[in-house]
Every structure is written in structure tokens, then in C-alpha cells.
Amino acid sequence: MASNNLGQQAYHVVEELSVRIGPRPAASDGERRALDYVADELRKTCQEVRRLPVKGIPGQFPIRTLVLLGGAILVYCVYWLVESPQAMLTYLLTFFALSKLIPIARRRASATSERESENVIGILPAAGESRGNLVLCAHLDSSKASRVPGELWPKINRLRVRALVPVVFLMSVAAALRWIDMRVTFAPLSVWQAIRAFGLAFSVASLLFQLFYLYISRGDSYSPGANDNASGVGVVLALSQHLHETPPTHLDTYYVLFTAEEVGLIGSERFAKETELPKDSTYVINLDMVGAGKQLCYVRGSGLIPPRFTDSELNALFREAYAAIKSHYYFMGNTDFASFVAKGFRAASLCTKGDSQARLVYHTELDTIDYIDVDSLQLAADTVSQAVRLLDERLVET
Predict the structure, then answer these.
(1) CA 351 to CA 177: how far, in whole Å?
(2) Does any domain span residue 287?
(3) Within-domain flag for 340
(4) pTM above 0.85, yes or no
């Protein structure tokens, strides 16, 4: 069984990273201090610690400009819904392809970048005959930070973002029906004009609010990254201590802390591409944002074009380890597990939900230790520890 102080151990790591070290953008002095810290911690529990260079760290991608451009194009496509519905259908494809297009653009930018950082890897051999490899991982860097302009505006913006996806879907369905109607009439023109009026009202209001919100939340600082993702690093390091004391019998364990997740999953992509670990016997568990909220979730997958799904057997182990666990899907976002799924590894990921205030300070200057809950960290650590024990038992049986 896992130690009942894993949450407290993880909390101390979060405190070190987010308070004493502070913001950790990729390839910065702050991240280098964090890399030194986690390497020293892993040397206490691992037989070997490696620091692998990651070259070509890109700068911050102009997400805000892209978001505004997407909002303006949505207004245009909705406006032409009645006369040219195919424009809205094209927008739908582009809308859900962005999560794939942005990393591609970042990778191209990294090819010309001279900035360099590191992934840190701690290795603990199996206590007995090795029959598989376990990768416990999290990203170390923190993101560019927006300011938090009070409580009201972030809540309105979150409601707007939540409404955006279903509205885009509804407008796309309407566009498909209108395309059919232009060939086989089944509804009066006034119906399509009314649908367009609704979509236009929402998209224009959304774009105007977006402009306003980006203006009032603009900032040049970086987030201290307590929940995103000192929390994940804290749980990985706490588990390294726990598994050092009671190591898996048949699993060689790799504790991997990635650089440059926030600028395009660069660290995890390099690791997944360059590692010699065999795909059929390697099990990857990623931890990202596990320090706030009482509801523990396993991530089913991410994206729609194409969708990438996590490993069903690992997810089943999570459900067995913690019966109250829920599932979550990243329709627009992503995290490091996707780098492994894309390369054919058996990968899974955990996060926590349920704290609305912590969610509002995501990627902001207020992602501080004030929102970190020791019980959330303990729950994530306990669940991973139990899932690892179950996985190790399965390897004994096979």
C-alpha cells in the first residue's frame, strides 16, 4: 500500500518549484534551477539519473493572434451560411484540426531555434526478473501567464469557451442541412435566415468579448505553475521515494521529467522518438494538473482529427485501483501522453477536476500553491501506486 504521506511529500516539491524557484519557462534560468533540483531528488532514490539534451526549443507561439483570427473567420462563415454553407463545414474541419496544426508549426519553428534544455530521467531496476518498463512522467516547465482581471470576467470567458464548441457543431449541422436543402428543398428560406441570425449574434458577441478579454488579461510574465505542472512533478518524485522502498518486482521504472511541454510537447516528443524502450512492453503514466480538485480523472484521449486514445488496459487498472475515478477527454487541448500515443506506446494520463477557482487561474499568474490540495496529490499518488502494483501482478501471471 502507498504511504499516507505521499501527498505531503508531493506538496513540498510543489512548494520548492512554484514558490522558491517560481516561473519555469522552457530553456530559462528558472527551469535550469528546477532541472537541477529534480535531478538531485532522483539521485536519492534511483540507481541512475540521466540528463538528456533537448535542442531546438521554440519560442512562444502566437496563440492569441490565432484565436482572434479563428473568431473572425467564424463570423465570416456564419454570415455566408445561407448562400455558401460549405464554408462553415470547412471551418469545422479547421477548428478541430488546430490542435494538430499548432504542434506542427511549433516543430518547424524548433528546427531553426538554437535554444536548448533537458529531460531528466531517473532509473530504478525491477526487484526481480524484469518483464516490462514503467514510465512515470510529468512536465517541468510552466506557461506564459495571463493576468486575472477579477473574478467575473474569467467566469464569463470560461462560459463563452464552453459554449463555443457546441455552437460550432450546431452551425455545422445546419450548414450540412442547408447544403442538402439547396438541392432538395425541405425548409423555407426564413428558417435558414433565423439560424444564421442566431449564429451571427453569438459569433460576433464572442469575438468582441474575446478582444476585450485578451486586452484586459494581457501580460508579459510567466506562471509559477503550481498546479500546471509542479503538482505532477511532485507526485512523480513522491512515487520515486515510495517505489524505492517497495520496488515493483517485474517492472524497470523510469521517472521522466520533460521540458517544453507548454511550447508544443517538445520534450516528450523527443523522448518518445529517441528512446530504445520497446513499445509492446512499456507502460507510460503521465501526470498533469493533479493538485487541485477532489475528482480524479483518467484521460480517454485527445483531438478529433484524428482522435488519439489512451491505453484501455491502463485505464482499466485505474478504475480497479480507484472505483470513483471518472474519465476526461481533451477535445482541444493536449499533454505529454499524446507524444507516446502517436508513436504507438501504451500510454495513459491522470488529472484532477472539481475546483472551479483553480480552473480559472489555469495559465495565469495566480496558479500558485494557494490552490494546491494535499488530499488531491495523495489521491493521485495512491491511485498510481495501486495501479502499478496491479500491473506488476499481471506481469507475474503472464
Answers:
(1) 38
(2) yes
(3) yes
(4) yes
